Structures are given as C-alpha cells and as structure tokens.
Amino acid sequence: MKIAWIGGITRNEGLYESEAAAHGHVLEHHDGRVGGGGAQRLRTAIERADLVIAITDVNSHGAVKTARSLSRELGRPFVLVKTGGMAHFRSLMASLAAPATAA
Predict the structure, then answer these.
(1) DSSP string covering 13-35, please?
(2) What is the pLDDT of residues 15-60, one digit of tens each?
C-alpha cells in the first residue's frame, strides 16, 4: 500500500520509510508545510497515495485541514493521529499489515 505520511520529524523520514517497507508498504513523507509550493507537493503526494495519515502534534491547522480536504476530494482514506513517534508508527504499520478477520 502507498501511504502519504503528513507531518512528523523530517530527520526520521528514513526510519519511517524502512518501518513501512518492513510491513509491505511504501511511504511518502510530506513535512506538512503548505506555503509556497508545499500545497502542490501535498496534493501530489495524496494523489499517489492509497491512504493518507496526518499527525496533529507537529502540523499546523492549515496543513491538517488541507490534507483532509484533498483526501476527501481525491477519494483517499484519511486517518488523523495525534502523535508521530516511532513506537506509535510501528503499531500503526502493524495494524495495517494485520489481515482482516471474517465476522
């Protein structure tokens, strides 16, 4: 699955990408900056994604609002998480990799 990860600590981008790959996903990170060409880069990332995850603790309200709006416009599932720490990210990737069970 291709995941657009909006926000988080940019210096950890490689760690996030490696963890996502370990669970069979491709991660595209966007730093959440929407000024200048940032909004267009955000749109491009969301267009390529199967799932959009935005982090609230390091993003501006504008970035979260823009990501949510673009996700809705482009028909991409949108998940809002409070923290982008590595432990939480690992848990999130593991939950995405878990097979669905029949009820």
Answers:
(1) HHHHHHHHHHTT-EEEEE----T
(2) 989 999 999 999 999 988 888 888 999 999 999 999 999 988 766 7
